[in-house]
Amino acid sequence: MSADKFLNIHNLSYAYGKQQVLDRLSVDLYPAQLTALLGLNGQGKSTLLRLIAGVLPSPLPAVNFTSNKPSIGYMPERPLSFPELSVIDNLRFAAQINRMNEADMAAALQQTLSDCHLQDKANKPAGSLSKGYQQRLGLAMAIVHGPQLILLDEPTDGMDPAQLQSTWQLIGRLAQNSCVVLSSHRISEVAEHCQRVLVMHQGQIRDQLMMDDAAARQSLAGRFHQITAGDEV
């Protein structure tokens, strides 16, 4: 783990009306690290990602970048695309709204299509894609501009085994140079592929675990079930 913090979140609370979703949550995030938010549905994972991404207004100064605000790529749980537009036109739109340099755009589009295995779908309407390919397109739109911070909400949902493998490989490569934070409820995937796991329950981070070795990976499921069952020690 890098000693230099990339992002500090301190005492963050958030509610939808009377429903408290995040409760005094604090955590540090680090560059060049693949971090997972692991939790059951409805525990605040998506809300936390939205707050970091700026999709929801964050109560200041709860979310603090330690230097200038980085470029951000965000993939929501249900990726947003224009169904009538082709895959490559959706990708071009994502690059443009993230103010990508026109001179670099053409190469970036082709590289991202290749990275996300979308070359043969480039000219197909986004609305015609299967669930797994919709997820790939959502990931592609989040990373086309080369962001320093990548936020992915359930990025592998609906993927077949081959898509899972290639997507996790890509996410791992992205984390070599970017801060990657993803949400998931899939313990085995998180244990195998992520470097750091933040276990979320009832709007709080109840534990932080490093997946340094086989023993740590094997113990994750037990610790997770202990926390979510209300039996944490």
How are the secondary structure elements laid out?
Layout: E1 7-16, E2 19-29, E3 33-38, H1 45-53, E4 63-65, E5 72-75, H2 87-97, H3 102-115, H4 131-143, E6 149-153, H5 161-174, E7 179-184, H6 187-193, E8 196-201, E9 204-210, H7 214-228
Parallel strand pairs: 3-7, 3-8, 5-6, 6-7
Antiparallel strand pairs: 1-2, 1-4, 8-9
Helix pairs in contact: 2-3, 2-4, 6-7
Can you tell me about this structure?
By secondary structure, the chain is of the alpha/beta class. The protein has a single domain, classed as P-loop containing nucleotide triphosphate hydrolases (Rossmann fold), CATH 3.40.50.300. The protein has 7 helices and 9 strands, in the order E-E-E-H-E-E-H-H-H-E-H-E-H-E-E-H. The strands form 2 sheets. The chain has a 6-stranded mixed beta sheet with strand order 5-6-7-3-8-9, with helices on both faces. Strand 1 and strand 2 form a beta hairpin. Helix 6 (187-193) runs antiparallel to helix 7. The two termini are 25 Å apart. The mean pLDDT is 92.
Q: Nearest-angstrom radius of gyration?
A: 18 Å
Strand order of the largest sheet: 5-6-7-3-8-9
* The CATH top-level class label: Alpha Beta
Structural class: alpha/beta
* Low-confidence spans: none
> Which shape, going by the Cα principal axes?
globular
Provide the helix percentage: 25-40%
- How large a portion of the residues is in β-strands, by DSSP E? 15-25%
Distance between the termini: 25 Å
Outline the biggest β-sheet: 6 strands, mixed
User: Could you spell the SSE succession in H and E letters?
Assistant: EEEHEEHHHEHEHEEH
Mean pLDDT: 92
CATH arch. level architecture: 3-Layer(aba) Sandwich
What oligomeric arrangement do these chains adopt?
Answer: single chain
Given the structure, what is the number of helices?
7
Q: Write down how many β-strands occur, each being a DSSP E stretch of 2 or more residues.
A: 9
CATH topology: Rossmann fold
CATH superfamily: P-loop containing nucleotide triphosphate hydrolases
Number of domains: 1
